Every structure is written in C-alpha cells, then in structure tokens.
Amino acid sequence: MGEVDFSPLTGESDPLQALRDTAQVRRLLEREEAVQVRRARNGGASWAAIAAALGVTKQAVHKKYGGRGVLGRKDD
After folding, report:
1. What is the DSSP string of 34-71?
2. In a domain, 7, yes or no
3. What is the distance between the alpha carbons of residues 57 and 71, in angstroms, rounded to a whole number?
4. Domain carrying residue 24
5. Which of the residues 19, 60, 66, 72 has the least number of beta carbons within 10 Å of its own beta carbon?
6. For the chain, what is the domain count?
7. What does pTM read for this prediction?
C-alpha cells in the first residue's frame, strides 16, 4: 500500500484548521487500530503477526497494546 493523501479529507485551505482535522483523523485511526489489535488477539493472532501487519516490531506493538489495555486482562 502506498502513501495516502489526506488533503482531500479536510477540504481546508487554512493550514491550522487542516492540522486540527488531521489530529482528529489521527485519533480516529488510533482508536480503530486498537479495536483491530484487540480483534486480532481475540482471534488468536500473535504479537509478531500483528506487528508485521502494522509494519512495526513485536516489541513496539506489545509495548503499546500489551498488558491490560487492549483485552482488559493481563495479556502476555
């Protein structure tokens, strides 16, 4: 997947408003990522598989989503 041009999403010529819009999109994407990580773990996906899908290291994804945050329980 290539880079995504988000400028059409905001439709803003004001760069400060475009930044606010971008921050909102970022928050929405972070929430969606957390939901999908939880779904993947509930479905039996390993941290390594999730990390590969996200293009990050296993350690990075486990640090961000491991523990009690994603599944609501201790999740090694």
Report:
1. HHHHHHHHHTT--HHHHHHHHTS-HHHHHHHHTTTTTT
2. no
3. 20
4. 13-65
5. 72
6. 1
7. 0.73
